[in-house]
């Protein structure tokens, strides 16, 4: 039986990555740092999972002669970036990706639990959910976030933590991801993965996902099928997920 859907956040629930990029750039400017991350450059940096880890990587690779002093400023830089990200998000730039709200509501109404497994920090998740579910009926039963896992994706830690908190077997859930590292992380935790390619993962190979699509699709606005399992009418629904999952379990038996 399909008991849970586990979602990544950045690029999967919402196209948040460019807001993170803009937040970093505003923090750099406010702190007098002569840095600017273009969209193309940020796409490369996104191969490093986690905002703090991304910043460390950038400093070590491009400013190694000042690395010690700059690393000491990391909490200041990241905290300011988080503040600017929040301001950008609240200005209207943090809506859910196509099909996400519909599928979340179907799962909630159909008795399938919802979870988040992400490398982003908890305040960013809370903001996303508060802006998109303003009635206070936050639908996610479990949130595994940021620094709660010893290792970032592609290690399985964060997905394994979400599965543990749900109290289920990995075979009873489906993970949703947008990146190559995220797919590897979910697979390593024993979860089948449905990939929805995002703005910043267009160049990623989505190997290992049982299905890859442009987004979850909406009635009258079907998604683009990329590889693997094909969804009826170009829309990922709870009923279709249950049908696939039941067949997957039979095949694994």
Automatic annotation (TrEMBL):
Coiled-coil residue spans: none
Top-level taxon: Bacteria
InterPro entries recorded: CbbY-like, HAD-like_sf, HAD-SF_hydro_IA, HAD_sf, PGP-like_dom2
Keywords assigned by UniProt, alphabetized: Hydrolase
GO molecular function: hydrolase activity
Keyword Acyltransferase set for record: no
SUPFAM superfamilies documented for this protein: HAD-like
Gene3D superfamilies linked to this entry: HAD superfamily/HAD-like, Putative phosphatase, domain 2
Protein name as it appears in the record: HAD-superfamily hydrolase, subfamily IA, variant 3
Natural source organism: Methylorubrum populi (strain ATCC BAA-705 / NCIMB 13946 / BJ001)
Organism classification: Bacteria, Pseudomonadati, Pseudomonadota, Alphaproteobacteria, Hyphomicrobiales
């Amino acid at each position: 039986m399909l008991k849970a859907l586990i979602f990544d956040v950045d690029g999967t629930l919402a196209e948040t990555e460019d807001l993170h990029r803009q937040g970093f750039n505003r923090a750099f400017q406010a702190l007098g740092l002569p840095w600017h991350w273009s969209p193309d450059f940020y796409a490369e940096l996104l191969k490093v999972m986690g905002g703090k880890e991304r910043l460390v990587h950038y400093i070590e690779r491009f400013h190694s002669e000042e690395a010690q002093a700059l690393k000491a400023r990391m909490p200041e830089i990241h905290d300011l970036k988080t503040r600017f990200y929040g301001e950008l998000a609240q200005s209207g730039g943090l809506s859910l990706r196509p099909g996400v709200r519909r599928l979340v509501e179907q799962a909630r109404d159909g008795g399938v639990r919802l979870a988040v497994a992400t490398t982003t920090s908890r305040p960013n998740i809370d903001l996303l959910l508060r802006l998109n579910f303003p009635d206070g009926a936050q639908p996610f039963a479990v949130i595994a976030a940021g620094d709660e896992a010893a290792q970032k994706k592609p290690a399985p830690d964060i997905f394994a933590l979400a599965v543990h908190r749900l109290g289920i077997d990995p075979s009873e859930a489906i993970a949703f991801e947008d990146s190559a590292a995220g797919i590897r992380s979910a697979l390593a935790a024993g979860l089948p993965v449905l990939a929805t390619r995002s703005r910043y993962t267009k160049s990623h190979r989505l190997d290992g996902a049982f299905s890859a699509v442009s987004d979850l699709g909406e009635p009258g606005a079907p998604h683009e099928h990329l590889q693997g399992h094909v969804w009826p009418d170009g829309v990922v629904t709870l009923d279709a997920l249950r049908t696939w999952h039941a067949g997957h379990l039979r095949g694994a038996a």
